[in-house]
Records
---
Amino acid sequence: MMRAPQTITISGAGSCRTPALIGTLMQMKERFPVKKVIFFDKDMKRFAKIEDYCRLLLHTFSPETEVVVTDDMDEAYCACDFVFCQMRVGQNKMRSYDEKIPLKHGLVGQETCGPGGFAYGMRSIGGMKEMVDCVRKYSKDTWILNYTNPAAIVGLALDRLYPDDHRLINMCDQPYSMMVSFAKILNVNVKKLRARYFGLNHFGWFTELYDTDGHDYFGALRDYLKNHDFKPYNAEQRTQSWLDTYLRVNKMMNCISEYIPTTYLQYYFYADEIVKESDPHFTRADETVLTREKEVWDVCAQAKGKTELGNIQVLSSPVFGSMMVEVAESIAYDLNAEFIVMTRNTGLIDNFPAEAVVEVAGTLGKEGVRGIPYGKIKPFYKGLMENQYAYEELTCEAWMEKDYTKALQALALNRTVNDFDKAKAVLDDLMAVNQAYWTLEKRDEPCI
């Protein structure tokens, strides 16, 4: 039976991830047919670098698909079935500040964790709210699939702002990426793997791994990681900083090996070590521009003025793109496929706040997200998560109330900071460069 074709809007279409997303869409067009693709970005100059390539892919593999390119929000969101949202508010210029300003203060400089993640989150909340409000002005039925970082802060803020909007789905591809890496190690098909998992976004642990036939792989994987370097599935394409990130999973498991931690936990357990190894003048923002972005732009440039694909490489993404399309497919055709999902807790983790947005295994279908109950978590993990959740909650409240004190409290709580003097210094510097995106008011309140 033919599946009904969908209209999708790609928000933040100027991203270097978009060409591979389109390539993946074309690879999966029988599973997720698309009748119309709307490319939306506020920066048309950036999208122009990849426009010819994206049009050429669509013309080659799906000539019946209508293509719209726009910088007008109303045109982008007035009539679509799905929004694939991957916006970066402030682009790489602001990402560079997010990473370099904390390093100036001897703190972790990372785009989603620590002070950099705080600043990026404060920018992203506003950008996401503007987008959701515009989409909902036209339709309550459009599915918004949000992959905008930092997903933990953005997801919690959106849950507070739109508590009854069950078609607003927040996702992250890092657990999916780790599952692909696990599958390569175990020599099994990732589509057959299932996990038990708990945490917050970029702050979680795998606790079981098995396949659809019930075969348990967790013990074998844990033993492997005790004795072999953990490498991403695409290690040959990764920079050294990313290879080092995966190696720290081994290091964390040398201390506590009962669960497999996500890679981002390195920033909370080895903050001092990471700061010492970081170059405050050259961070991942610079690395991305010189490597991944350049590689994508170079491929896309070959499509300029071409009417046939010829030998031009078809970019695709076995993680980000595949997950985005698979999630949309599962929702559109009510497949209830299983993913690691972000959702309001409401008893999924018994001994954790019900209103928190947690990350657990769950399914996605026409009713949205359905988390799979996890049960209770142990005191060590519960304590870590409660501290991190308090940081996320205070960050969201700081944005909503424009409250300097709550922002300061959030940063002082963050495990990558843990110092009021440093928290205040880095907050003031981040505020200074983010005035166009967010502001805070100092009030006559105590710091704690």
Note: The chain is about 45% helix and 15% strand.
---
Amino acid sequence: MVQKILIAAIDKDGGIGKDGYMPWHYPADLKLFMNLTMGHTIVMGRKTFDGMFDREKAPLKGRQNIVVTSQAEEYRSKFAPEHSPSHLNFTTDINCGDIELEADAKIFYCGGANLYQQVIQRLDLDIIYLSRLDESYDCDTFFPQNPQSSDVEFEPYIPPYLTQSFSDKMSGSKPFTFQIYTPKPLIIY
């Protein structure tokens, strides 16, 4: 069974990016992202891909990279000579129904704002991994906000069928809180 997982890092105001990139560097969070996604499928929107590709950060190594874009054919023909479809592919479908996936694949949806909004509204997610940073970074791109939250403090929109199963303050030079949301509470020993 394919697992659908949303993974995001947000600043204290719900920001996820500025000028097409992440305006912070949290080594512990990057390591966590790498460990969780390595060997699996990551799905990102076109703007996220373009921002990463422009800085030679995409496609991410060791993962099947899928970019959701209305310009899938154009992007596919542009990148096909350099990258095999098993490493980098393009689709118009957030379900990736037109791309061959392993039967037990883990699909990590990793941004940006438009993709997060579509995924939260249209897919039944199995897990949300959320890194909550303690600082603000003057972002211009944001994670979807819970419409019931106050204007005083940002609260991310989490689908009502998911509950917070785990939360841990990650220490280091730049501490952050790592949260896991699942349909049923996790049992952690």
Note: Helices lie at 27-37, 46-54, 72-79, 113-122.
---
Amino acid sequence: MKTLRRDWQIVCVVCALDAPYLAEYLHSLRSRSFLPDLLVVAEDDHNVRVILDALAVDAIYVLPAMIPREAFWITLLQHFTPQRDVNIVVRAGVQVPEHWDARLVAAGQRADSAVAVSPVCARHALLTVLSGSARRPGLPVDEMDQWLNDYAQGREFPVPVLLPSCMLLQGPSWRSLPAPVGSDAELAYQLRTAGLSLVATDQVYVDDSHLEYDDGTASLPPPLLDAYLYRSPLAAMRHALSELAERCERPPLMKRCLPVQLHLGHSWGGGLARWMEDFIGADTHHNHLVLRSVGDLSAFGQNIVLYRGADMDVPLQTWSLCEPVLSVSSGSIEYREVLQEIIAAYSVESLVVSSFIGHSLDLLATGLPTTVVMHEFFPFCPALYAMYDSPCHSCTRERLSACGRNNPYNAFFRFDSDDHWMNVRERFAQAVLADNVALVAPSRSVVARYRDLEPRLEGKTVHVVSHGLNDALLESLSRVRSTARPGAAEGERLRVVALGRLTREKGGDIIADACAALAEFADIWLLGTGESGARFTSLPGVTVVSHYESGELGTLLSQIQPDVGLQLSTVPESFSYTLSELWAAGIPVLATPVGALRERIEESGLGWLVTPAAPDLVAALRIMHADRSALDATAILLGRAGMRSSTEMVADYLALEPANGGVPLARYYLPRRSYSNPYGPVGQSSGAYALHINPQRPYRQALEEFLLHTASKADQTPSLPGWLGGALGGGMRWCARRIAAGRAAGGKRV
């Protein structure tokens, strides 16, 4: 791996006229630079000396009072000899974007035979990103730089000039220049005549619009000048960037120059998708990409889809596998090629694996720092929960075979043999022992059972990092605590709430069996059930809200004011987000004693455990109804308890990252490209619209989006008479509105 050199020096050229803004400028320059090594070369002016002394900046005072417009470089190099092999010269007042210095150095390393590398700019005729004569950008330097990264080809290209505002000098040539000449244009000519290359990079933009200088193009032969103007990589993007600047249109997404982390998961949604969204939202130390497997029950990795973030919106790229991954592959040449392509094309520096479903164990063989988050027991266990009658603590080949035939929880992967699973276990256990692979579990119960199941993990550190809730959700749930109602009046019905899907493994059968008895003394709210809540909608005393947005949960709980929450999983949870949400809202919890639920409740004392049976649930709630003192005392404790945030979670993950052995050179190849340019990259059509359905969305929402898309097509198609297209479109929009209204209503109370 090529790494970024780190021995450059920033040289800031200062004259007396720069004094009024010098202190503020140097602070900005340092804050935007990757390395702080700064030398000021200045005119010997009293005001400048006072400012630089106060800032304790290294400075030499060697420049004359006047620097000719056409001879900036000649004048500077006559009075200052660069001492480093790499020097980046910038004139005071020139506005620079984030990590401008590292990006110029990276361009110099890519074009290592060049003696000078210029950024693109606002002012210079050949290097401006603006068309026309005004060359006054209407956007700040970072926003113009962002647009540049979203349009640029990512090239270093030859130029016949020395940019007077900012330039990188590299190599020994600058310490042994030929005899002095009269202008920068002549110096550039001498260097090029001697076979030395001057280049510019289209990946860094600086704003030098305030400067006045001679651009050195007057002496260029017209054919050469025309070629540099119209054949350089800048020619294709000038019109677009000029219009954006003139409209003062901000980029839709601002990216920072950060290492790229690739997350890997499936497309099922659920807690894994939630964790990924919260992690990416809270992490300010990486740029993130997400690679998901997409398929169905016949093969879970039919397509491998790359997204720019946690949202499954418009993919960046999609790969259809000739040989789909049925469950998990122990090794796939197709998958390896896809992975290598992504790592190279997107400068990926680390991986976070949340699920191997639909993926290949090749994920563990990239050599990059890789974190495996143990949300589930896959790929060791095809039943995901490691549950067969009861939680498993060992699994022989014979037990695996019986599990495949008889275990209702082992219902997903029906086409892979026992030999396949035994081989996957072997390869997985060996691969995760590598030094570059870190294992993380959200609870100690996961660690203990995984080590029981796979004893080879005893020799591998497994870090326990519990999940956190995102800051916005924490804030909304904390308001539920602050508005909690006073103690219940005598005879008042118990208010009970359960969050999430109510499938069998989430305790849906237990609640269904208990509802009739609970209706005698309790009201029950079932929130976020999805389609699993349909069987509860006609039951007395039960309110079902099938769907809510994350930001609506606090409002719903404030309206309900529950006395107790239920978490009745019948399979071992690895963490339980719903437990965290209920606690964050100040709601005591009654839970089944499995997995992380037992661990978290026993350790905290902020709830109670009940065996997973309807009669026991009814009995426990009846006791709480009769005597609310334990509920009230626990609610008081919850009101004082601190709740863990996703920001704290991410900080714990960052602490596990290996020490940086050097910055990969690839990090600074178009480091701010957002892949969110609404107008498309240069040379590609951006007018096409495609319908993208997120596989995580509920069926009704997907149908609503499909109907709206089809209605739009019906309106516009020339294949139908106008009246018919309008009628069809109107009918489909009416259906879509009905579906939307039903989703918004969300539930039914009887």
Note: The chain has 23 helices and 25 strands.
---
Amino acid sequence: MKFIIKLFPEITIKSQSVRLRFIKILTGNIRNVLKHYDETLAVVRHWDNIEVRAKDENQRLAIRDALTRIPGIHHILEVEDVPFTDMHDIFEKALVQYRDQLEGKTFCVRVKRRGKHDFSSIDVERYVGGGLNQHIESARVKLTNRK
């Protein structure tokens, strides 16, 4: 299980030295709070986020709840790392994951990539969004104000 923690905006506007110190303090606070849930927990600092990885899936809700009570955290993103081979593979995995949630609703696909790929983020948005729209009869694409 993996969480990506976005920093509180007050931290991001600080100078480099102050920002690094605050991120180090926040990382220490996260380790102190979460060590009770999982001894093998990994907390990794990055410039714009903090990554938390734990092995015990049974503690997912408890860890997420504990993270919400730590000052300095703006957003908590729960992430599932899924390997892929091409855009069609991404579409198939998205269809399995979101088919039931999109029935009778409007949706919009947004993609952020890391690394080097043969396709752009916009290419994936169009391919996956078009595929979901074709395979889910009651769902409609709405690029603004989705509901």
Note: The CA atoms of residues 22 and 142 lie 39 Å apart.
